[in-house]
Amino acid sequence: MHEMSLAMDMTRIIGEALGRKAPLERVNITIGPLSGISAESLRFCFTEIARMEGFGEPELVINHTEARLLCLECRTEYEVADFYQGCPECGSISRRILSGREFTVDSVEIDEDSE
Ligand SMILES: [Zn+2]
After folding, report:
1. pLDDT tens for each residue of 19-41
2. Given 3, 15, 36, 74, which residue has the most CB atoms within 10 angstroms?
3. Which CATH class is domain 2-108?
């Protein structure tokens, strides 16, 4: 499962950033609609792996961005949450992807009480 390896990457990145393993209160991430990541599946995998790896049971807060596209027909820039939506000006689906593939770990909050 794709999300399982992403969840393992996340715990590795968090562990390196903190320099230790600590129980986490909350983890904030950003997922773009074109990243191909299933938020529900990632949430499930991350919860399992965080506990196994010694990070407690953090709440995973997922910030969903919109995709930003450039219409190649009329040069309009537009944002969509659904990739299959065409240009709002001319209806064309020929476009360049400007953003929307993000997958970032933005911040973590440590549960200080349990240390
Ligand atoms: Zn257009």
Report:
1. 999 999 999 999 998 899 999 99
2. 3
3. alpha beta
